[in-house]
Amino acid sequence: MSTYKPKFLKSQSVGVIPVPFSGGQKRDGVDHGPVKIIQFGLLDQLKELGWSVTFDGHRDYTQLRPASDPPVGKLLNTRYVSAVTESVASSVQAHLEKGSLALTLGGDHSIALGTFAGTARVHPDAALIWIDAHADINTPETTDSGNIHGCPVSFLLGIAGHVKELGWVKPCLTPDRLVYIGLRDVDAGEKKILKENGIKAFSMHEVDKYGIAKVVEMAIQHVSPNRSRPIHLSFDVDGLDPSVAPSTGTPVRGGLTFREGHYICEAIHETGCLVAMDLMEVNPSLEDDEAVFQTVTIGCSLVRCAMGETLL
Ligand SMILES: NC(=[NH2+])NCCC[C@H](N)C(=O)O
Ligand SMILES: [Mn+2]
Ligand SMILES: [Mn+2]
Predict the structure, then answer these.
(1) Best of 85, 132, 139, 149 to mutate for ligand 1, by most ligand atoms within 8 A of CB?
(2) Cβ contacts of residue 298 below 8 Å, gap of 6+?
(3) In this predicted complex, what is the ipTM?
């Protein structure tokens, strides 16, 4: 059957964690992403690729919503985000401790606070490859929107300052283990943070200039110079162009093509180092049925490519 030899997994097994959560931003519907993706048949598709699949089941995260959650400065839903992400971190950790890959389906990108924190508990050396139109590295000071889905990376790096409500998050990422691909809508404060911390980012400009193959090669080389680090791939579907993945809350034109998105996933699979993947920001209540179908379809195929589907 399968000849896949993952470097950091005990077996070709995956834990799938659906996180129907939208509290990291203001648009309804992104919490329905995971159900749609599962309905589309992702679990069977992964089994067909040779994976043994453990499904965590559809939990009701609204039970974690606190009775009161006033803004902390500009930041919204801090307690709610905190409770959900802390729980997600444990779920990811549990799958990784068993030697499985952890696949988390969002939900908005604030969830990645939890997913990478969970990864780092088991693989403290893990690299984070972040595919996105946005850098999601705002701090409580720099955020305009107050949406925590625009901030997870600053919390992971420990540059967000102390927010008591999100006190469980400990710095678990260093700038040298972080790389971005696909950026094209970066806030002024975020640009400053990227520069000051020497964070490597391949914007769409670099994708145009070098081509996606070279960019992915440089990105992996940057975060894992000896190809020895476990990789956590956090894929915000808005990294893709809105013509490719329309149903998402903060679309930005000029994004990755269908093939560029898939190439990234294929190349990361080829490293054999993938230990965790997030698929985030699929919002089935935005745009028409056809657009939703298109977005969910591509979300599933990105995951399959990262987990070994090939064209030939
Ligand atoms: N995960 C996302 N889609 N993030 C969008 C963030 C947009 C903007 N930079 C903000 O801070 O609100
Ligand atoms: Mn984004
Ligand atoms: Mn994002």
Answers:
(1) 149
(2) 237, 240, 244, 245, 258, 261
(3) 0.98
Beta bridge partners of 233: 129, 277
Q: Read off the pLDDT of residues 150-179 as tens digits, 9 standing for 90 and up.
A: 999 999 999 999 999 999 999 999 999 999
Residue 2's pLDDT band, with cuts at 50, 70 and 90, is low
List the catalytic residues. 109, 132, 134, 136, 149, 236, 238, 281
Quick check: 294 pLDDT over 80? Answer: yes
pLDDT given for residue 5 in this prediction: 82
User: What residues line ligand 1, using a CB cutoff of 6 Å?
Assistant: 109, 134, 136, 138, 143, 145, 147, 149-150, 187, 236, 238, 250, 281
Q: Is the pTM of this model over 0.95?
A: yes
Question: Could you write out the three-class secondary structure of the chain?
Answer: CCCCCCCCCCCCEEEEEEECCCCCCCCCCHHHHHHHHHHCCHHHHHHHCCCEEEECCCCCHHHHCCCCCCCECCECCHHHHHHHHHHHHHHHHHHHHCCCEEEEEECCHHHHHHHHHHHHHHCCCCEEEEECCCCCCCCCCCCCCCCHHHCHHHHHHCCCCCCHHHCCCCCCCCHHHEEEEEECCCCHHHHHHHHHCCCEEEEHHHHHHHCHHHHHHHHHHHHCCCCCCCEEEEEEHHHECCCCCCCCCCCCCCCECHHHHHHHHHHHHHHCCEEEEEEECCCCCCCCHHHHHHHHHHHHHHHHHHCCCCCC
Rounded CA-CA distance 124/171 in Å is 11
Task: Give nearest CA residue, ligand 1 atom 4.
Answer: 150
